[in-house]
């Protein structure tokens, strides 16, 4: 396990006939000459290989409610220690964390922690899990894997918040150490992925199918609805039919409200009615756990039993109210088993946000 806060060599790359070296972590497959960085800016060529330049470095640590990731069926009410690094392998024009994900200034990585320090801090702070978030863990997978291994040694679970844009071989190694994930399904057209995110849809769908069929990772899906871009009835219908048909009706889906940011300040915020319309379409197509996010919507944020209609987990923003689950995760009313990872009792972290300092460079 690496404990340095520095550049480290990586494994997923190949040498090309023209002398360049290709990074093989994500489908972008950046082909680099000596000294060049990939689009993510945190992986680059150094002599005859690819190095990761942000190992052990972070843009900050914070204890959040797990519902903020968002994960509604993974240890509800528990605290999660969240952190990210810098850089991203997508180029989303609407990025809400662009100050970190688009950063080319390593000065933003003012905090640092070794994997063992992070795992110990999570335990001491009473966190049930550690989340790789703010920017995509795909680009710092080596650091994330080492943190995950250290967390598992002390009984702390791990969460990946990701766009799912990853090649098969590194994806298999990465998810071997992940307990839960929230995958951003940004839209359901190749046009949107190409023009708005600078990437492709197909590899993301492959990641979702991989998680469902080949792993025991608990995962949920989030789609940020942008007015006029990915919120048509036809696209929502096609997307939710695909989810129901390929992943099943029990995968929780979160429709999140867009707020103008980064390079898409010309779009209006998402009206709450759009989120409700999307939720209705998804449930009509057989998805049983569909949520609204980034808006105040008690009904759309709460978990309801698809069997008897009972309120199972009441949520008001990130505060939990009524709890209608038995200790083994069934509806207390009709006995239906609710999919997810549940403790015998809900967590009590609430909506608090607690910034944490580790080290200052």
Summarize this entry quickly:
The chain has 361 residues and is α/β, with parallel strands linked by helices.
Topology:
Elements: E1 8-9, E2 13-15, E3 21-23, E4 31-32, E5 43-46, E6 49-52, E7 57-58, E8 60-65, E9 79-84, H1 98-101, E10 111-112, H2 115-124, E11 129-132, H3 141-153, E12 157-162, H4 168-175, E13 180-184, H5 190-197, H6 202-214, E14 218-225, H7 233-246, E15 253-257, H8 272-284, E16 290-293, H9 298-301, E17 303-304, E18 311-316, E19 319-323, E20 354-356
Parallel strand pairs: 9-11, 11-12, 12-13, 13-14, 14-15, 15-16
Antiparallel strand pairs: 1-6, 2-3, 3-4, 5-6, 7-10, 8-9, 8-20, 17-18, 18-19
Helix pairs in contact: 2-3, 7-8
Low-confidence stretches: none
CATH architecture of the largest domain: Alpha-Beta Barrel
Shape: globular
State the helix count.
9
Strand content: 15-25%
Order of helices and strands: EEEEEEEEEHEHEHEHEHHEHEHEHEEEE
Binned, the helix content reads 10-25%
Mean pLDDT: 93
Number of domains: 2
Per DSSP E runs of 2 or more residues, the count of β-strands stands at: 20
Largest sheet: 9 strands, mixed
The CATH C-level name of the largest domain is Alpha Beta
**What fold name goes in the CATH topology slot of the largest domain?**
TIM Barrel
The first-to-last residue Cα distance is 21 Å
Rg over CA atoms: 20 Å
Superfamily (CATH H level) name of the largest domain: Aldolase class I
What would you say this structure looks like, in words?
The protein is an alpha/beta fold and 361 residues long. It has two domains: 8-52, no CATH class; 58-356, TIM Barrel, CATH 3.20.20.70. It has nine helices and 20 strands. The chain has helices at residues 98-101, 115-124, 141-153, 168-175, 190-197, 202-214, 233-246, 272-284, 298-301, and strands at 8-9, 13-15, 21-23, 31-32, 43-46, 49-52, 57-58, 60-65, 79-84, 111-112, 129-132, 157-162, 180-184, 218-225, 253-257, 290-293, 303-304, 311-316, 319-323, 354-356. The strands form five sheets. The protein has a nine-stranded mixed β-sheet with strand order 16-15-14-13-12-11-9-8-20. The protein has a three-stranded antiparallel β-sheet with strand order 1-6-5, with no helix packed on it. The chain is globular.
């Amino acid at each position: 396990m690496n404990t340095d806060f520095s550049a480290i060599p990586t494994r997923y790359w190949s040498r090309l006939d023209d002398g360049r070296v290709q990074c093989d972590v994500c489908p972008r497959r950046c082909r680099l000459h000596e000294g060049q960085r990939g689009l993510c800016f945190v992986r680059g060529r150094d002599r005859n290989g690819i190095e990761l330049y942000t190992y052990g470095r972070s843009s900050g640590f914070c204890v959040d409610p797990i519902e903020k990731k968002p994960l509604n069926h993974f240890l509800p009410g528990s605290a999660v220690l969240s952190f990210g690094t810098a850089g991203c392998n997508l180029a989303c024009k609407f990025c809400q964390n662009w100050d970190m994900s688009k950063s080319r200034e390593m000065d933003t990585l003012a905090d640092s922690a070794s994997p063992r320090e992070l795992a110990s801090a999570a335990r001491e702070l009473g966190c049930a899990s550690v989340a790789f978030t703010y920017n995509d863990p795909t680009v710092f997978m080596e650091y994330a894997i080492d943190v995950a291994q250290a967390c598992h040694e002390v009984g702390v679970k791990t969460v990946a918040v990701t766009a799912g844009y990853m090649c098969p071989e590194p994806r298999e190694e990465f998810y071997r150490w992940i307990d839960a994930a929230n995958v951003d399904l940004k839209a359901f057209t190749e046009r949107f992925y190409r023009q708005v995110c600078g990437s492709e849809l197909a590899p993301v769908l492959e990641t979702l199918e991989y998680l469902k069929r080949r792993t025991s990772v608990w995962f949920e899906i989030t789609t940020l609805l942008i007015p006029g871009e990915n919120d048509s009835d036809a696209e929502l219908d096609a997307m939710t039919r695909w989810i129901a048909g390929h992943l099943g009706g029990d995968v929780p889906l979160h429709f999140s409200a867009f707020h103008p940011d980064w390079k898409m300040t010309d779009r209006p915020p998402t009206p709450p009615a759009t989120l409700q319309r999307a939720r209705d379409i998804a449930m009509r197509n057989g998805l049983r756990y569909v949520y609204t996010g980034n808006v105040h919507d008690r009904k759309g944020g709460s978990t309801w039993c698809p069997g008897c209609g009972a309120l199972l987990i009441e949520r008001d923003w990130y505060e939990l109210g009524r709890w209608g689950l038995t200790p083994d995760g069934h509806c207390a009313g009709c006995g239906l088993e609710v999919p997810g990872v549940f403790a015998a009792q809900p967590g009590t972290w609430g909506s608090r946000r607690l910034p944490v300092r580790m080290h200052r460079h």
